[in-house]
Amino acid sequence: MRIPMHSPLPGRGAARTLMLTLAVAVSAAGCDFLDPTNVENPLTTTEDLARATEPTRALLPGLRAQFARVLGGTMVLTEVVSDNYSIHGTGLNSEYDNPRAIVPNIVNATGTATGLYWNLQELRALSTFVLDDIVPGDNSATTEQLAEIRYYRGMAFLMLAENFTAAPLEVDGTPVPASELLARALADLDASLASGVSGEFNLRARAAQARAHRLGGNAAQAAQAAQQALAAQADFVFLQGYDATSITNQAFVFTTQRALKEMQPLPRLDFLDPKYTSLSAGAPVAKAEEMHLILAEIALASGSLGAARGHLADAITLAQSRPRPNFTDNDQRQNADLTVRPRNAEIVIRADPQSPFRSGLVLTRPGSVPVPTISGTSLRADSVRALTGEEETWHAFHLARQEIHFLEGRRMSDLGIRLPMMLREIDANPSINPGDAGTTVVVPSYIPEGNGMDVFTPSSPYDDDDQLVTTQVTIQVDMNRVLARERVNAFN
Amino acid sequence: MNSHRPEPSPDRIRSHHPVLRPPPRRLATLGASLFAALLLLGAGGELAAQTGSIQGTVIDAQSGRALVGTQVSIPGTQRGVVAGAQGRYVLENVPAGEVTLRFQIIGYELVDRVVTVQAGTTVTLDVQLRTRALAMDELVVTGVGQATSRRQLSTSVAVLGEQAIAEAPVQSIDQLLQGRVAGSTVSAVSAQPGTGSQISFRGVSSVFGSQTPVIYIDGVRVDNSSATAPGTGGEQSSALADLLTTDIERIEVTRGGPASTLYGSDAATGVIQIFTKRGRPGAPRINARIEQGFDAPDLKYILDAGEIYPSRVESGELPADFLAQSFFRTGWVQNYSLGVSGGSEDVTYNVSGRVQDAEGIQPRNESNLISTRGSLQANLTDRSRLQFSGSYTRSSYGRLYNGTAIADPLTALEVGDALFFTGASTVQEATEIFLLADIEELVERTGFSGGYIYEGSDLFGFRATLGVDRRASEQTQFQPIGFTPGDEEGSLQRFQRNFTSATVDAAASLNWPSTENLRSTLTVGAQGFRDNEYRIFGSGVGFALPGSKDFDDAATITAGESRSQVFTGGIYLDENLAIRDRVFLNLGVRFDAGTSFGDEVDFATYPKAGIAWDVGRETFMEDLAGRWVTEFRLRSAYGETGKFPPPFLRDRTFSATSFREESAPRFSNPGNLDLRPEVTKTFEVGFEAAFLDDRIGVDFTWYDATTEDALFFVPEQPVTGQGTQIRNVGEISNRGIELDVSALLVNRANFSWQVGATYQTVDNEVVSMGGAAPFFVEPQKRVVEGQVVGAWFVTTPFDSNGDGNLNASEQRFIRDCDDCKAYGPTPTRSGGVSTRFSLGPSLTLSARGDWAAGHKVMDFGSVWSTFNGIYRREIREEGYEYPIRYNAQGQPGRPYAQSAARSEFIYDGDWFKLREISARYAIPGALLSRVGAQGGGAFFSLRNAWIWSKNPLIDPELSGLNPAGGGLALGGESSITMSPPRSFRFGLEFTF
C-alpha cells in the first residue's frame, strides 16, 4: 500500500531545483563519456599500417630489434646447455644443464633470454611479412633495405638450422629438416649479396654465407666465402647492439648483473667472463676470427695440418689484438649452496684428469678484471704453430673456437646438441606429433650424462671461511678432447 | 543463510541493463534531454498533512523475548526506526490517517500492520513475530525487471541484510562474502594491505580474464579489478580492498545463470549489487562507533630460523625464533566512524565518515584509511523522487616485497636465500637490507550515483540511474642506493592507474493485468556502460646521491603507458506472470552490442525462462503437511549470460618498442573479426522448504552451466611469429549443487540458538577446445579437453627402465589413477558453518567457519628452498624424503632438480578456517539514557581465529601468486606469504 506524501516543508522548492539542476548537469556531462563512437584502439592496426608512407623503412627497426632478441635467446639458452656455463641460482631452469633432460616444455619460452625458437620463428615470419606483404606495395623501399631484410631472414634460417634438427616454416606445415633450412638461409644470403649492396650488410651476409656453408659441410664454398670476407676487411667485426632500457643484452643480465646469480662459467673459461659489461653492450654476430677458424677446420678435415695451424694462429693473433678493457666485477663466484667457486688467480686448472694444470685461466674476483669484449683466448699463436699430431691440432681448434666464440651462442651447436622445438609448436600444429623430427633433443653419445660437462673437483677449493684450501682444480671432462677424439667437425 | 532481511524500499529498485546499439552522440544528447524532461514531468503537486505518533514493543511470539533491532518502517516512504531495548519503538511525525507499519528482523516473518493515526495523538501497536527460516516475502531487485518477492522468483538470489553486514567483523565486501553465500569461493591473497580476494561463483566458467563478479553500488558499475598496480612479488593490489562494508543496507548476489541474464554480456561470472543506506525523516540521528584492536600474525606455516638456519642458531648467532621475535609483530588497529542521518518528509540525508589506522603484522605494512559516504533524496511529488549518493575513499598503505620477489625479506629468510641475495654476513644484517625498500601506495576512489524514480500510477513506473565510479591509484617502489649488493645506483618506479566506469540505466514497467488470479509485470529497460582505464609508469635507475625520490634525477629514465576503453550497451525485456499467486512464470531477453565485439558480430542475445510453483500455499499441501512443512516451493529456470572479450582484441595490431633510438614494431595481436562474447547457458532446478513450524529452512539448487563459444587465448603456431589470439572456440561445463540450511534449535525467552550451513560442489570440465591446442593458462596449469580448467600438469619423476629407481621426469597430471580426472587448483567442494546464540535480552554470541576441499595446491617457497639444499617438506612431514635421480646404471645421483620434480611440491588443498567469533552486547536503556543515547552496544570479535589444513607447509586458501594484469587467476599456489592475521577487535557504538 502506498502512503500519500504530505506536508510540503520549507526549502522543498529549493531542494527540488538543486536536485534537478544536478540531474540535468550530470546527464549532459555524461553524454560524451557514454558515446561509444569515442572508443579508439591506441595501437597500430592494419588500417593504420596501410597509411604509413614508408612502411618498409618503418618496419626495418623492428627486424633489427627482433634480431637482437634472437641473439639474446641464443646467448643465454645455448650457453648454459653447453659446457661454457652452468646454473647456480633461481632464475634459469636448472634442467638446461642436463641436455638429455631437455623436453619441449622446458624450451617453451617466448622471452628474450631463453625463447630462442620463438624469437627465430618471429624473425623469419616478420621478415617474410615485410618482403611479401609490404615491399611489393612500397615504392619507397630501397635495395639496401631489401638486402638487410634478406640478411635477417637468412640468419633466422641459419640459426634454426644450427640449433634445431627441423622446424616448420608455414602454418600447419610439417617440420623442414635442417638441411632445407640451411638451403633457404643460403638462398636469402645469396639474394642479399646479389643485390649488389656494399658495406656492412654485404660483409655480414658474406660471413654468414661462410658460416652456413661450413654448417652444410660445403668446404669449397665455405672457404671461398671466408676468403672473400677476409679480403674485404681482414679484421672485421660487427656487433648487434642492445638498448639499456628496452631490449637489453640478456647475456649481460645473467652473467654480469647476476641478480639471481644464475650463470657461472666453467672455471677454465673464467678469464673470458663476463664478456658484456653493460646492458647495451654489443654482441658479435660476424667477425674475421670465424673466417680463419673455418679455413682451419677445412684444412684439418682435409689433412693439411700445417695449413690448419697457420689459420688457427691467424685466428688467435686476431683475437688477441681485440680490446680487453678492465671491468670491476663484484661477482662472488658462488655455487648455489653459497660455497665459493674458483676465484683466485693462483688457482691452476686442468681440463680433465689427464691434462696438465694451466695457470692464468682464473682471475681474482671480486676485483678489476680484463674483459675480452669481442674475442679472447688462452692459446698462443706460437704454441699452436708448434703443435704436433692431428688430435692435438683438432683439440686446439675446438678450444680456440670455444674461447673465441665464448658467449656468442655457438658452442652448443658445435657440441652437436640440437634442441627440440617449443611445446607450443608441437601442440598447436596438427602436422606435428611428439617424436617427429625436431621435437626431441639430440645429444650425441659422447656428451657425458647429467650435468657432467659442468662438473669439476673440488666444487669449492675454499673452506667455510672462504680461505683457499687448494689451488688445483680439475674439470671432469675436457669436451674439446672429446670432440677431437671423435673428430667432430663440419666437413666429415 | 536465508532468513528475513530488510525489504528494499522501492527507491532502491533499479535495474542495470544497457542500451541497445551504442547511440550516436546526437542520440545520447537527446536521451539526456528526455531524462531531464521526465524529471520535470514528475515534479509538482504537494499535499498538506497533520501528524501523530505510533509506539509499541516487538517480541518473539513463542518465547516472548524482546526483538531488539527490529526495523519498523512505513513501506513506500523513508520513515522508519529500529526497536531498541525491550523491543520498544516510537515513530513520530506520522501523517494522520490509515498507515501500514512493517516489522522485519532477520529470522522472523515479515509483518505488515495497519493502524489509524490521529493528528496529535500517540497510538500503541504491540507486535509479536513468529520465527521464519526462509525470507520468502523479501523483495529483491537483482536479475528481475522490478522489485519482486523471493517467493515469485524462479532463480536463487542470495541476500545479505543490514544486520548481517553490520555485525560482520570485516572491512571489505570480498571478506564479507566469505562463507556467507552458497555457491561462492572466496580466497584471500595474503595478509598485506591493499590486496583483495579471489571470488568466483559456480566454478571457473571461463579461461580468460578475471572470474570476479561484476559489482554495482547503487546501480552503478564499479571497478572490480584484481590487479590495479604492479605486483610487489606475487601479490597485486585489488580494487576490492577499497569496497568497504561501511553504510551498506543490503547486498544481493546472483551467481550467474538465469538470475544474471538481464545483465547480458557482463554477468556470466555473477553480479553483486550493493545498496547503501539512505536517510529517514526525523530529527538528526547520530551514530558513533569506536573500535580498537590488534592484528596478530598466524605463524602456523612459518619455518623459523631454527629450521632454516640451524647452524647459525647452534652457533648462537641467531635465535631459533628470529622471525617471530624480530620480524613479525602484533599491530594495533584503530577504527572510528561517525554518521548522521535524518531529514524532512521530502528531503532526507545520510552522511558518514570513517578513519582507520593499522600497523600491520610485518614491517612496512602500515595502512591508513579515510572514507566518507553521503546520500540525499528528495520527493518531487508523491509519485516521483530523486536520489543521489556519493562516496570518497582514500587508502594509503605500505608494502613489503612478498610472494615471489627476490627482494622479498620473508621469502628470502624462509628459503635460505637471505645472505645469498644481500651479500650480508648475518641474517640480521640481511633483514635490514631487505627492509630498505620503500613501497607505498595511495588509492583515491570517488563514486557517484544519481537516480530518478517515477511511479506514475499502479499501472506504470519508470526509473533511471546515472553514475560514475572513479578510482585513481599511485604506487611507488623505491630501492635506495645500497639495497642491491654492489649496486650503488638505486631505483625508483612510479605507477599510476586511473579507472573510470560510467553507467546509464533506464527502465519502464507496466503492471497489467493485475487481478487476483493473474498479475503481469512487463519491464523494458536499457543500459550502457563505459570503462576507461589508463596506466602510466615511470622508472628511474641510477641516482648519484641519496635522498632523491624523483625519478627525473636518475641516470636512466623510462616511461610507458597503456590505455583501454570499452563501451557495451543493451536493451532487455522482462515479463513476470503470477497465476493464482501460486505459479510464477518469468520470461526475458537481453540484446547487447559492444565495442569489443568483432566487426562481423552484430548483437549478442541472451534469453531466459523460468517457473516457480509455491506448492506450500496449495490447499492440498497445507492439508497434507500442516505445520511440519510450512514452506515448500519448487523452481526451475534456464538462462544465458555473457562475458565480453577484452577491448581491442578483435583488431590485428602491431606494437613497437623503443630500441636504440628507433621505434621498432613487431606483431602484436593477430586479430579476429568474429570475436563475440562467450555465452554461459545455465539450467537450474531447486526448491526452498521450511520444516517444523518454520524452524528449519532449506534452500537447494542444482545447476548445469555450459559456457559455449568460450573465449580462449589460443596460442598461434609459433611459425606465424604471432602470439595468442582470443577466439571463441571452447566449451566449459560446470555442474554442481548449492545447499543452504538454517535451523533454530532453541527459542526461549532468555536463550535462542541458531545454526546454519552452506555446502556446494562444482564439477568443472573443459568439454571442448574446438580444435585449439592444449595450453598452459598459468605455469603448470593446463587447459586440455576432459580435464578441469587449469589441471595441474607438472614434471613428475618416474622410472623409465623398470629397474625400480626413479631416473627420468616428464609432465604428468596429478591424479589418483590413470583414468581419473586430474586435480585442479580450485576447490571442488566448499562450504560454511555458522552458529548464533542469544543469551538474555542483550547478549549475542556467534561463530562462523568456512572450508574448501577436493583440490591441490602448489608450494613455491619449498621449490625455491631446494636451491639452497633445504627440503622444507622433509622438515615438516615426517617420513617424507625428496626423490633422488638415479642414472641408467642404477646408481643414485643428485636430488631431482625442482624443475624436474614439481609433483613433490603439490599438496592436498583441503582446509577449514574458524573465520569469525564475535560477541555483541546491547547496552540497557537505563545506562544509555544516562549518556543521552537512544541505542548502543559493545562488541568483541576475532577474525581468522584458527586454521586447519591437510598439508603442513602452506596456507592452501591463499592465492598469493596472481597473474599480471588481472587475468584469469585460478589460485592454488603461493610462496611464503602470510595468512590473513588473527584480528582482535573490541569497541562501542552508540546512536544519539
In short:
The complex is a heterodimer of chains A (492) and B (992). Chain A contains 16 helices and 12 strands. Chain A has 492 residues and is mainly α.
Which helices and strands appear, and what pairs or packs with what?
The complex is a heterodimer of chains A (492) and B (992).
Chain A: H1 12-33, E1 44-45, H2 46-50, H3 55-81, E2 85-87, H4 116-134, H5 143-163, E3 166-167, E4 176-177, H6 178-194, H7 200-216, H8 219-232, E5 237-240, H9 250-257, E6 263-265, E7 283-287, H10 288-301, H11 305-320, E8 326-329, E9 348-350, E10 367-370, H12 381-385, H13 390-404, H14 411-414, H15 423-428, E11 456-457, E12 472-475, H16 479-486
Parallel strand pairs in A: 9-12
Antiparallel strand pairs in A: 2-6, 3-4, 5-7, 8-10, 11-12
Chain B: H1 25-42, E1 51-60, E2 71-73, E3 80-82, E4 88-95, E5 97-104, E6 111-117, E7 122-124, E8 127-129, E9 139-140, E10 148-149, E11 158-160, H2 162-167, H3 173-177, E12 184-187, E13 198-201, E14 214-217, E15 220-222, E16 248-254, E17 271-276, E18 282-296, H4 305-308, H5 310-314, H6 322-327, E19 331-343, E20 347-358, E21 367-381, E22 384-399, H7 409-415, H8 418-422, H9 427-434, E23 438-454, E24 460-479, E25 491-514, E26 518-541, E27 556-579, E28 583-594, E29 604-613, H10 619-625, E30 629-643, E31 653-659, E32 662-667, E33 678-691, E34 696-715, E35 724-747, E36 751-761, E37 763-768, E38 775-778, E39 781-783, E40 791-798, E41 808-813, E42 829-839, E43 843-853, E44 856-859, H11 860-865, H12 872-876, E45 884-886, E46 892-895, E47 906-908, E48 911-922, H13 925-930, E49 935-949, E50 973-974, E51 982-991
Parallel strand pairs in B: 1-7, 1-8, 14-17, 44-50
Antiparallel strand pairs in B: 1-4, 2-3, 2-5, 5-6, 9-10, 11-16, 12-13, 14-15, 16-17, 18-19, 18-51, 19-20, 20-21, 21-22, 22-23, 23-24, 24-25, 25-26, 26-27, 27-28, 28-29, 29-30, 30-33, 31-32, 33-34, 34-35, 35-36, 35-37, 36-42, 38-39, 39-40, 40-41, 42-43, 43-48, 44-47, 45-46, 48-49, 49-51
